[in-house]
Amino acid sequence: MFEKIKEFASEFFVTGDPLIYGADVGIALTLISIVVVLTYFKRWGWLWREWLTSVDHKKIGIMYIIASLLMLFRGGVDALLMRTQLAMPDMQFLEPEHYNQIFTTHGVIMILFMAMPLMFGLFNIVIPLQIGARDVAYPFLNSLSFWLFFWGAMLFNMSFVIGGSPNAGWLAYPPLSELSHSPGVGQDFYIWGIQISGIGSLMTGINFIVTILKMRAPGMKLMKMPMFTWSTLSSCITIIFAFPILTVTLALLFLDRYLGAHFFTLDGGGNPMMYINLIWMWGHPEVYIVVLPAFGIFSEIVSTFSRKKLFGYKSMVFALMSISFFSFFTWAHHFFTMGSGANVNAFFAITTMIIAIPTGVKVFNWLFTMFRGRISYKSPMLWTMGFIPCFVVGGMTGVLLSVAPADFQFHNSYFLIAHFHQVLIGGVAFGYFAGLYYWWPKMFGFKLNEKLGKWAFWLWNIGFYVCFMPQYFLGLDGMTRRVSSYGWDMGWGPLNLVSTIGGFLMGIGFLFQVWQIAHSIKFMERDTTGDPWNGRTLEWSIPSPAPVYNFATLPQATEQDAWWEEKQRREQGQKPAAQPPLEPIHMPRNSGIPFIKSFCWFVAGFGFVFDWLWIAIPGLAGVAICMLIRSFTYNTDYYIPVDEIKRTEAALRGSV
Amino acid sequence: MAQQPNGSHGAGGHGHSSHKGHGSFKSYLIGFLLSIVLTIIPLVAILKDLVEGTAALVVLLVTAVLQFIVQLLFFMHLNEEDKPRYNLMTLIFGLVIVLTIVAGSIWIMTNNAVAH
Questions:
Q1: Are B100 and A584 an interchain contact pair (Cβ–Cβ within 8 Å)?
Q2: Which of B18, B97, B106 to mutate to test the interface with A (most CBs of A within 10 A)?
Q3: What φ, ψ does residue A561 adopt, rounded to 5°?
Q4: Which residue of B has its CA nearest to A282?
Q5: Are residues A211 and A334 in the same domain?
Q6: Statement to judge: residues A35 and A133 lie in one domain
Q7: Does B111 touch chain A (CB under 8 A)?
Q8: A57 and A6 share one domain
Q9: At CB < 8 A and 24+ separation, what contacts does A397-404 make?
């Protein structure tokens, strides 16, 4: 009996690597301390009522951001482990097998479990406030989206201590990801983790499209919307058309692995290249999904901190929407070398070059917005200034890669690695950091410390160039991606060492950000104005943090930068328009179903990963029961009475 | 939402006086009959070997497209939408994407020298 348990455990848990044992201990201690703290301070009920069951978009946004920062930590540690190995390739710091797992999880986590939730977090916090709404269109669905993402991410992350991590690269190309080449459970964790959180992403896309189209403040025409709202709309449109492709592709891969189908196998009429073709139909739009909102954030910040209206509003809208359209027609540039001939490659090379044009338009719009503006270099603006040169260089190396014949040289070399890190860190990460610094006072009611923020910014920015500029040259010197070791005679050692130093500089930058947050929570003054940056859009017209119903009376927004214009009128001595009398506010009720149902999905996914139907079936049954219960729940909303609104408003605005 | 004329919570659909009904008994009945007929035609045609080869393919595709249109008009009420017609726009964009996926994949894979 004991022997059997021991044998089972040695396969069930990942064993043999001291790094993993260290992680085991770390995870156990963290879980124990969370339980102890919650029990000691009697906070379980609070956690359940105020957070886990909340359908308030502001709280869901905060939970998204916390989760994504944890994932940033995990993905960042993965990156530093890889860089350490590459700086000392003969030290056997990471076994090749372990190295494969780490570059796979690094990629998946950074794109799907860091960038996406950080983006959704900002959508949640900003969009309803910015368009003058009281919540998103479907608050229950919103909560469900978050918990599906959360439990999907947990399922994926579990793989590194239980069962073994996926190791076939972040897009899991077959035949490597097929049962014949990856018999373990790692790839199944990959499929189920992404599928479960993918449903959540799709629902968020639908939710925000409806919110933006249907719930704008009276008077806010489409062409008066703030630019971040536009960028969210374009990103969500891309989501709802791209994510189903991912779901179907991974479902086919699952059928191959689970039921012995032959969609992408080498035998039985399957074709692995079809997978590559399909996954990039999602994969290419995906990079625009994550970067478009960053463009929106920069537009807001540039305009606010230059004290000027955004230059070229209409061209900006046109650029955003055309990018989300054209992003569906460039996918084959990820596999120019697959051998589809000159005609196919020429077509996709040209579409790729075309899509660079609207992006270039945007850069000029930001520059002209700053031109003759009164620029103040606060943290959000600093990240924006760091972004522009970084993204321009990254974009231009992208155009180099789009030249199909030349791509045969660059393909899968470190040149490519440097390129996409430059656009993803320089564009996406810098963009969301800028957004976090910008909207932080709206979320929590205080700014983040500027001095520590400057340290973090410069460490990240310098670290970035030190890390990735050498990689362009490594790529041209012939170093391919995903190698865990190389001989000294290749001459790659010095550049790799420099690159690793840069990686650690960024790591220190992240530590400064953590310190900055902790320090600011303790020492920063509360912002009582609700408008610490002298903002331009509606979210700055209400107190920070916003009350649960956001707007006591719905604002009128008849012009672009509505709040800025209102402030100008008040400065000129005009009285603000008389507010209509308060009315009871219709709000959605909290619900525990999203949390429980997503957990059931997690259980079902776990069962399928290990092919244990006795776990998978109860999990799926739980999902079905949750759906039934929700269908027969009629008490889903309530009204906040006028007295309570008056009291809340007096408490929030009384101190102003 | 009491104060929000152009918005509604998915959860609290009741109490909307402006919420007009979709379709009538007659239109649902017509839609139902049409979709049944359009299901039976290809089934019988193929199972009874009435058509073969290219002709069978054409019958299948034509009835499928007609079925799609019947469902959209009679059950999804695509023609009853107020302006701006977001549902129609989304549908058209979706069709463009589907066409791109199918035609693009066929084009790329038939040109693929390695796949043959």
A1: no
A2: B97
A3: 55, 55
A4: B101
A5: yes
A6: no
A7: yes
A8: no
A9: A397/A422, A397/A472, A398/A352, A398/A356, A398/A423, A399/A352, A399/A353, A399/A356, A401/A333, A402/A333, A402/A349, A402/A352, A402/A353, A402/A356, A403/A349, A404/A333, A404/A336, A404/A342, A404/A345, A404/A346, A404/A348, A404/A349
Neighbouring residues of A305: CB distance < 8 A, sequence distance ≥ 6: A375, A376, A377, A378, A380, A381, A384, A533
Residue A338 to residue B3, Cβ atoms within 8 A: no
One domain, residues A180 and A90: yes
Residue B1 touches partner A, C-beta closer than 8 Å: yes
Q: What's the number of CA atoms in the CB half-sphere (13 Å) around residue A296? A: 30
Residue A138 to residue B11, Cβ atoms within 8 A: yes
Q: Say how many domains are in chain A.
A: 2
ipTM of this predicted complex? 0.87
Longest distance between any two alpha carbons in chain B, whole Å? 63
Q: Which residues of B touch A271 (CB under 8 A)?
A: 109, 115
Residue with tokens 């656009």: A423
Q: Is there a single domain that holds both residue B37 and residue B73?
A: yes
**Which position has the token pair 């540690």?**
A77
> Could you say which DSSP state residue A556 is in?
P
How many Cα atoms occupy the beta-carbon half-sphere of A54 within 13 Å? 20
A37 and A72 share one domain: no
Q: Are A550 and A130 in contact (CB under 8 A)?
A: no
A482 within 8 A of A100, measured Cβ to Cβ: yes
Full domain range(s) for residue A235: 43-547+557-566+586-653
* Structural domain of B36: 22-80
Domain-located, residue B104: yes
Measured between CA atoms, the residue of chain B closest to residue A272 is B115
Q: Which stretches of chain A sit within 8 Å of chain B by CB?
A: 133-135, 137-141, 213-216, 218, 237, 240-241, 245, 271, 273-274, 277-278, 281, 328-329, 331-332, 338-341, 343-344, 553-554, 583-586, 588-589, 636-637, 639
Q: Give the up-direction half-sphere exposure of residue A179: CA atoms within 13 A in the CB hemisphere.
A: 14
Instruction: Record the tokens describing residue A619, joined without a space.
Output: 């999990």
pLDDT per 10-residue tile (average), chain A, 656 residues: 84 81 86 91 91 95 96 95 94 90 95 96 96 94 96 94 92 93 93 95 96 94 95 96 96 95 91 94 96 96 95 95 94 92 94 93 95 93 96 94 93 95 96 96 94 96 97 95 91 95 97 96 89 93 92 89 91 84 92 96 96 95 96 92 91 69
Count residue pairs from A and B with Cβ separation < 8 A: 95
Which among A268, A78, A247, A329 has a CA at the least distance from the CA of B103? A329
If asked whether residues B34 and B61 sit together in one domain, one would say yes
Task: Decide if A273 and B115 are in contact by the 8 Å CB cutoff.
Answer: yes
